[in-house]
## 1
Amino acid sequence: MSEFDQDKDYQLLHKKYQEASTEVPAASIDASILQAAHRAVESTGNEKTTSGMDTQSVKRSWFVPLSYVAILVVSLSVVMKLALEPPMMESPVYETSEYIAEESSAPQRNSVNGTAVRNEIMTQDMSAQIQAENLQRKIHASQREKKVAQRPMLQKQMQFAAEETKAKARTKARVDKLAEKPLVASVASAPVESVTVQNQLAGAGDYADTSANRVQSDDVESVNELQKLQIEKMLVLLKLKKFDELKQVLIDYRKEYPLNEQEVLPEKLRNWEKNNISQPPHTK
Amino acid sequence: MNSFSNNNLDDLSDEQLMINYRDGQAAAFDALYERHKGGLYRYFLRQLNNRADISSELFQDVWMKLINARHKYQPSAKFTTYLYHLAHKRLIDHWRSEKHINEQVEYEDTLQSNASEPHEALQQMQTKLQIKQAIAELPEEQRSAILLKEEGALSLSEIAEITGVNRETVKSRLRYAVNRLKGALHPLRSVS
């Protein structure tokens, strides 16, 4: 009891107030409230499960763990999806650079977080750049293949040009070598093994810079080095389909080496000569 | 069996009765209601200038709210503090919705007397009328404090908790209320 309760004025007021306070609610109100209270208890009793637990409590007890499990499943699925997805092909390099510049110009920010973010962004940029370079290489390769496919003769022309350059270089080297030797002595001392040379030159019909098809230079030299070089040149011209030049060279060749029984000219060239040049007089 | 059970319930505290009701014992509510129905009803009646219709409506609202919120009840405070806290909040809501006007009411129709002698009955009726009239004329804060003290039998701290002020403020309000009621008590003192 507080000191206020011991006040005499209050004690008198309290006594008179309690005597005057006789009002009570109506009986109908009492009945309705009590009925509602009993009905509420009965309805709760009907909701009880056989185990004695309230069904609402049972439901509520599952809500929280169920929601946690749902959140966990969704988070894991999102992480898995992000991990399995290939990174973006187009990397926003300019944004990243701006971001890094901005980060470096703001030292008041958390350095640990900034470094981590920068490292992550740089890693992503590097991977994106590597992928972009690989893609660019593939594009260039496909473009080259497409160009070659569109122009099939380009490759052959390039190959022939290279072969011609090589042949010219060899011819020049041998001409220079022969120029050092006395021509008459070379020709006189060279035994003509016409059959062997002819067969070898005929076997080199499909001219190529391989050891099998190449004209054996030692054998040719044994016959006539200059003649052999001229034959090689003609074969190259025939291969390159420079027929005008071939015709001129062949005419010059025939002037020097008229047609005879010891013909060393390959069959390919002879056939071409027959078809394109009027036959010179056969000399024995 | 039933009377034994009811006797047991009468011995229980308000808080234990409410716990029993929360756990499904309907009779516990009956006992609880019987203990506090008069005080709560008069609290509304005095606060609402003896308007029985509105007082009955708010009175039922509070008990229905208590019934529906029985699952959440935790005996962390006295039951009367909980009950009158609900009542005070409901009263404030009502005043806000009705734009409370301090109306003067006539008490003659509501006053009753159980006195046998006509002169004694008249004196009792006059006393009740003066007390109630004086309480009705109190400022709202002082009236709330004195009614919570008288009808709810709450301590200063409990009144302070319900009305949202500190204990000294409640004490001050009660002193002001008692002093203003002295005018009504003075003739009563001479009579008694």
## 2
Amino acid sequence: MPAVKETIETVESIADYEHGFITDIEMEMAPKGLSTDIVRYISAKKGEPQWMLDWRLAAYERWLTMQEPSWAMVNYPTIDFQDSYYYAAPKAKIELDSLDDLDPEILETYKKLGIPLREQEVLAGVKGAPRIAVDAVFDSVSVATTFRAELAKSGVIFCSMSEAIKEYPDLVRQYLGTVVPVTDNFYATLNSAVFSDGTFVYIPPGVRCPMELSTYFRINAADTGQFERTLIIADKGAYVSYLEGCTAPMRDENQLHAAVVELVVLDDAEIKYSTVQNWYPGDKNGVGGIYNFVTKRADCRGARSKVSWTQVETGSAVTWKYPSCILRGDESQGAFYSIAITNGHQQADTGTKMIHLGKNTRSRIVSKGISAGKSNNTYRGLVSAHAKAKGARNFTQCDSLLIGDQCGAHTVPYVEAKTPYATFEHEATTTRLSEDQLFYCRQRGLSTEDAVALLVNGFVREVLQELPMEFAVEAQKLVAISLEGSVG
Amino acid sequence: MLNINNLQVEVGGTPIIKGLTLQVPAGEVHAIMGPNGAGKSTLSYALTGRDGYEVVGGTATLNGEDLLELAPEERAAKGLFLSFQYPLEIPGVPTLTFLRTALNAQRKARDEAEISVPDFMKLSRDVAKKLGVTPEMMKRPLNVGFSGGEKKRMEIYQMALLDPRFMILDETDSGLDIDALKVVSEGVNALRGPDKGMLVITHYQRLLDHIKPDRVHVLAGGRIVDSGGPELALALEADGYDRYKDAA
Ligand SMILES: Nc1ncnc2c1ncn2[C@@H]1O[C@H](COP(=O)(O)OP(=O)(O)OP(=O)(O)O)[C@@H](O)[C@H]1O
Ligand SMILES: [Mg+2]
């Protein structure tokens, strides 16, 4: 399998963290700290209308009354929210007609990212390049959006959130905060007050989005919290597949990331949302790394609507993330496919919530957790059925793989059924990467690293298959890279 | 070809192989028989470099090269293959994916070019036909849910595909039905050759009816206690291991 071989070569070609470089571009920053003035500053910088500013300020007031949650199985030093920057924008001109106008350093950054090579080709219009539309978030401001015109032909709107606020205020006002309310949780409320930018997608009724949509997020400036806000709406009978990929350069201080993603799915529509996240996990001693507190939720509002979340989480020092589905429409379906890998001193507390409200709603959860080194990996899942959710069905499969004997895997399933007519099934396994299997592979000629990559990719195969093809290969490599040195 | 001299192996601090000497010249097939717990599998693990099988004395060379200082995958790349007494299951990894990865890893270690996908597909199909391995089996995750006999057949399939120079077969016959034994034995015989060698560990003459050994050795109490021609196996079948009790 060439992907595995490539993995090994990739592993050999990188020192520690591959994406640990910092782009030297002039930054425009807001002063450190958080106050109504900062909220006003962010809003003013982005030229937002009054309603948006009011929305932010209300969120900020609310946030002041809230407490940071402590129930997750993660430990980290207290975050000083006044010791962080909440806005950073590259000073270069950002409204572009073509790629030539892009700051060469920013282009260089994309190049260094390695992963978006394909996107580079797409950006450059190389013949035969895959048709993927990219919206790149460079720190806090969306820098380049491609294929906009072609998407527009089919009526698809794909732009930065800032633009959407100005150009499609009615759509934004109709849907923003309707899936994740401003008051939802500490991090979501903070995001509502200070969100920097993000992606907005609207697929009109009956339209199948003609290409994969993809966003690469990076966190660049030191000490800037990153607060993306993403809103995707699939109108009746629409379909879209969206991929979010993330890398962050190496930084000593821990950086806070608190994104909010809202998906709205109307009658007979479908959204596939895939995430590949390999943010800086901190060094060998557990110093530095990203704190990732994300709220992702899909509202299957329409009958027969469908959502699937697929995630490959290999990065960050601390991950707190539960992509969820509200299955409101009758016969709506939600799926959650997850690979969460922790190594070194990483901590991940992740899972999903499937809230069955409509009749004959279905959900499926496949979670593959891999822990190595001294890391801790927790699956936390809630499946609930409302009194009206007759015929609701859930199947949960939760598998943990342990590599070494200093790591931990935990499974915390919550189940609530308020109707007797719901069927919930849960299966869980925990296995240790076996010495016997490793030896068997090595006897056939594989190096230990090859063998680990092969065995682990086998373990997560069911989930990898849910990713769009071109990203599955990438994810497969990431899986191997993130476990480098975990055995032998 | 394979040269083992006064080999001593400990498992968990307990001496299991206690000074074993054995030569298998190129082109020959030698059988090893012996009571349960004699150390036959231990010998095969020590030769292939499994962790926990600690060589505390003696030497083992393959074509003059010291095996004992090599990592298991390096020994594999030198052409040493073990057909396991208890083959492992590799969930989620299709058999063909596993084998192509293994074959290319070995080729790379030997500075040979990777096999192309079409060449590999052709090779894997040809070998499968000879050994009665179905296309459906090749697509399934390696050994997962395979019956005991199917796993053994799959070991020999792997062996034929990797085309090793020295082969150790640890109780390949156990679990195989009568027809399978014939097919698999034919497959094994096809891999014999003037520059190849084999060590066939078995409890039963029926395998040796198909794979005719040049020499038969009796391993008991961690040593070779007797050696002879093919007729020795027949004698053992009749009399058992009683007469070696003291020798061990
Ligand atoms: N970890 C261990 N600690 C102590 N003794 C061990 C350990 N592992 C294996 N042994 C012992 O080593 C001896 C040799 O075992 P081995 O598997 O090599 O026997 P064998 O000749 O292959 O037997 P069989 O014909 O049943 O396959 C046995 O007595 C076994 O109990
Ligand atoms: Mg044995």
